[in-house]
Amino acid sequence: MSDNEVIHLPKAAYTSQAWFEREQEMLFEKNWQFAGFTEDLPEPGDFLTVQVGRINLIVIHGPDGQLRAFHNMCRHRGTQLLRTCGKAGKAITCPYHDWSYALTGELISVPQQKSEFPDLNKKTLGLHKASVETWLGMIWVHPEPAAPSLQQWLAGVQDYIGPHRVEELVEYAEGATEHEINANWKIVVENYIDGYHLAHLHSATLNMYDHKQQESGFIGPHFAFYEPLSREYAANLDKMSPLPVINHFTDEQPLGAYVPMLFPNFGLAASESSWSIFHIIPLAPDRTKVITRTRVKPASDWAYLWQSSKSYASFWHMGGKYKEGTDADDPMMSGDFMAEDIYVCEQQQKSLASPMFSVGATALHQEKAVREFQKIVLRMMDTEGK
Q: Which among 302, 293, 256 has a CA at the least distance from the CA of 275?
């Protein structure tokens, strides 16, 4: 049997609660995870929380301007200290018994300490520390206080994420999305790294790229992908681009789509006119949340409206297949490549329930990444105790 006929993960990897729970420990708790952007925590006391496998972490902007990460649990009885995001004030106080911690993690106040805890040494009961680092304006966390550095974890994939100067771009509020998908998180990842479907499922929605010229491969556990602009789109970029074109590229840094996937669940999508994150969050064996946030070239609202009107007209010139009168609720006729992806991921998950389900073959070149990703998952799932 040739390698392109081999699928390395069993059906249970996409359906089993036990498998899902083991992934939380072996994959998510042992890799750096995206938490947010530094601009989400601009002032001392600002915090956010993030789920990393089975562990909930706090990231907080300290009084000295430093970001710190802690396990989100009181050292008294384990109550979760903070919810979602917000401002902690001058201290972090447990809602259960009012034990309070400095923003730097030390236990500073225990109600009724003299009578109820006469022998308590507060110095031994600070918050459990976690690791936090920043990269390209993004906040990354790891549950271990002495985790390998973020740069070690990235291990060379930085050279394949695109030439975008993220600090010169601004967040595009209209580009933020949140979807709950009825499919296993790995199906969503595999769709993201599958080069074979681009020219087929997205024949009208992503036809601005030359899918035959795609370049991809793994750097450690991380996936790198690039494909250039199509000839027609490149020749008419000013008219056809859906957003104002980013103008800080050089001749040595070609335009196109740079779409890496940082293991296990974080995608970057950097194009000629935008830079986006694609955060895949597992909720259950058959349920996944995907959050996107997008940055674009600074420009006026008028410029964006004008560019959008030009690119819409150009869509028809390029042979767009979505006509007036089609069912607006049909994801395959929506003109939205994200809706197309969600549809096929959910249909694949449904088919896993059938006793007839099997994978007949996978594309030798353009689905190689799917096979490689599954190998990495399988290897990491078997590393307990090693």
A: 293
259-294 residue pLDDT tens: 999 999 999 999 999 999 999 999 999 999 999 999
Contacts of 105 (CB under 8 A, 6+ apart): 68, 70, 126, 127, 129
Which neighbouring-strand residues pair with 171?
Answer: 295
* 287-296 and 275-284 beta bridge pairing: antiparallel
Residues, the chain, total?
386
End-to-end CA distance of the chain: 30
Structure tokens at 221: 């556990």
Q: What is the pLDDT of residue 218?
A: 98
Q: What Rg value do the Cα atoms of the chain yield, rounded?
A: 23
pLDDT at 320 over 70: no
Q: What is the DSSP string of 32-98?
A: -EEEEEGGGS-STTEEEEEEETTEEEEEEE-TTS-EEEEESS-TTT------SEEE-TTEEE-TTT-
pLDDT confidence band for 316 (50 / 70 / 90): very low
3-class DSSP assignment, residue 111: coil
